[in-house]
Amino acid sequence: MGILRQNLIIAILLLGNFARGETLRICESCQISSIKEGIAIASDFDTLLIKKGTYREFNIVIDKPLTLLGEDYPVIDGGDQGEIITITSDHVTVDGLFIINVGTSYTSDYAAIRVVKSAHFLIQNLVLEKLFFGIYLEKSRNGRVYHNKIIGDAVDEYNSGNGIQLWYSQNIVVEQNIVQHVRDGIYLEFSDHITIKDNFSSDNLRYGLHFMFSNNDVYTNNTFENNGAGVAVMFSKKIKMNNNSFKKNWGAASFGMLLKEINDAEIRNNTFEENTVGINIEGSNRIDYTHNDFINNGWAVKVKGACYTNTFSNNNFLYNSFDISYNSKLNDNVFENNYWSGYTGYDLDRNGVGDVPYRPVKLFSYIVNRTPETIVLLRSLFMDIIDFSEKVSPVFTPDKLLDANPLMKKIE
Amino acid sequence: MLKILKYSFYDLIRSRWSYVYFLFYLALGFVLLFLNNDLSKAIITLMNVIIVLVPLIGTIFGVMYFYNSKEFTELLLAQPLKRSSIFLGQYFGVAGSLTLSLVLGLGIPFMLYGLFKSDAIWNFSLLLVTGAFLTLIFTALAFNIALSNENKIKGFGYAVLLWLFMAVIYDGLFLMSLIVFEEYPLDTFSLTATMFNPIDLSRTLILLKLDISALLGYTGAIFKRFFGTHTGLVVSVSVLLLWTVLPVWRLSAKAKRKDF
Known about the structure:
Number of helices of chain A: 4
Radius of gyration of chain B: 20 Å
Helix content of chain A: 10-25%
Number of strands of chain B: 0
Largest sheet of chain B: none
Structural class of chain A: mainly beta
Strand order of the largest sheet of chain A: 1-2-5-8-11-14-17-20-23-26-29-32-35-38
Mean pLDDT of chain A: 89
Largest interface: A-B, 34 and 40 residues
Strand content of chain A: 25-35%
CATH architecture of chain A: 3 Solenoid
CATH topology of chain A: Pectate Lyase C-like
Low-confidence stretches of chain A: none
Number of helices of chain B: 12
Oligomer: heterodimer
Distance between the termini of chain A: 41 Å
Helix content of chain B: over 70%
Distance between the termini of chain B: 19 Å
Number of strands of chain A: 39
Shape of chain A: elongated
Number of domains of chain A: 1
Low-confidence stretches of chain B: none
CATH class of chain A: Mainly Beta
Number of domains of chain B: 1
């Protein structure tokens, strides 16, 4: 009943908006020929219909609740002067624009669109190119960033910006965006209750997605491919990461996903494929890893220090060069009911669970941790022999680190 | 030379051992594919087998053939024939028949399981090329050993030792030296050391295809250049060629001067 009433009120409010709003046309030959002029003339809840054409404008400030609607992707060319659109009012919609040439600066973060201390905004169907920062949300709430395409041309980290950046923002949905060739695809700092879904972030200089000090966020169904260093989730709590796929992040400091100081997170149904390191974990506790697929990675999971009470269950570890790497002899994490393609045990009672435990940490991975050059001896007969002897009687690897109930068949 | 090659080749093709070798690979291929039906995984397993087994068979077979056909060789030496063509003919006969067994034995099951339609074909051809190279190299080394040792037992001993050294001991020493000198920059050393062992070289070639993501995990400019570009492939293949040419060259040179 409560929800129904709420919906009704919203519907009435919206109707009210439409009833109040007028449509102003902007084009080169129209009465209003620039966007700034249009904003100045418009009254609250009007719609500015921007016709096809090129508008050379920058520092456009939207300070009243308006809808900017582009027809056939009008181009807004900032001419590398500075910021292009700044939203300082609630209830603003920006839709269907092609924004290019954001100014680059070493002192301020110019963005194609910046939302400052506003709520209920909708930014959708934009194409951003030649940018510094793309969409920058600053201390804003309850908004949606939907179906935008951000293609940067970043070469160096120090003079490039992020595709979508959220700073001190709350309750925002970032959905179906494509972000490529910028520094960080999507960057969150001090932002809580954010939903990030169905995005595609690839070929970025640093991270495809980057979390800092942001709690209670959810990201699902995203694809992160070929980013400089994959995805980093740092210093955050209670994050849910489901159904994402992390692919082809190659390099010495490159990870499918990097977890640092993450607590109480949930990582489910993700696919990690052909990364140098699938997941790199450091100082992260009480994380639940379930139903993930680790396929053809160099290291499926690399556990650095201070990781306690994590649970890995029902995951598929398929053809990774190394399944798990550990740098300490202490283990407080649980591995249960996973499928390991390297498992060679048997199942006499035919219950689908192997009768001998599987030890995912090989002696060789311990050696490679110590002397990285030994990686050239991967898959040599000598290594297989010493791995075998270590398997029989563990000396160097944590002897309690094992999957007591490895599955015989891959989990579909 | 061609005539002798032809003779040795047909002689071997008809022999029991070639069939056994061929059937072994055939069975291996079918069993692997029957068990998991996944071409790429079967290729990884095969790689492990090929790298160890092909050199062993090449060495043993080479030495055995040389000693067994000694009387025939002496008969040929009495004829007006060039010495190098006698020995090279025999060598290529042995190496050729072994390679044929390998290629057919593995090729047939994979073809039946739809190799040409899968994208694993490049990995598979690389595997066969590596296997062929290893056969050529180790047969040549075996011929060299046999030619230098009149004593059969000694010759066999050296041949097995050679295999053991290349397949296991070399890597052990290599690993030890890497660990002992871990304080020093070792990337050039580790890559160079790989070049001096044909088994390691073939392994590297296959790693380049299968484990590239792990190999790129190490921070080193030289590693990165070697594994990250085509340099690795080009260098490995040319060194493998060198490994084939040198023993064959020594074989013909030694055969010319040897007193029978």
